Amino acid sequence: MFIQTQTTPNPNSLKFIPGKKVSSIGSLEIQKKDEISNILLKSILSINGVESIFLDEDFLSVNKEENINWEDIKHIILALLNEYYANGKEIILEEKPQRENVENYQEIEKQIIQILDTKIKPAVARDGGDIKFIEFKNGIVKVQLRGSCAGCPSSVITLKQGVQNLLTHYIPDVKQVEAI
Q: Model's pTM, two decimal places?
């Protein structure tokens, strides 16, 4: 099996594309190995220098500590992924999806979520990341950046020039976007 790797704008994050489905539960970020029972993810999180894993439908991105070189850990992650799929496994995370209940949101929050999901998430997913709506209050949209986007040097530019410009264009009540 050939697993592609792709650099991201975040030098401490690398995107792994196995060519198979990775997650059927949507996107998920895991920072501690005791947060998950999946043996593959526990093994990757046990590698010295790995800080977190972000999984999406068809890729996973791994974030490492700044002082660790990719040459020291990339081959271990690739070996673990190859072994996992070689043992007949078809998907890494396959539990029932837990959908966010958007019914309790105000209409403007639903519009913000729709724009994030349709126009912004696909772009940040290409870089191995994700963006999640947290709240809208007093003209300020708060979001959480995950995966490769978390801690990325260019995330501030993406947030202000991309996300904020797009949301203020479509929704005049939005004045600012902040990451938490």
A: 0.70
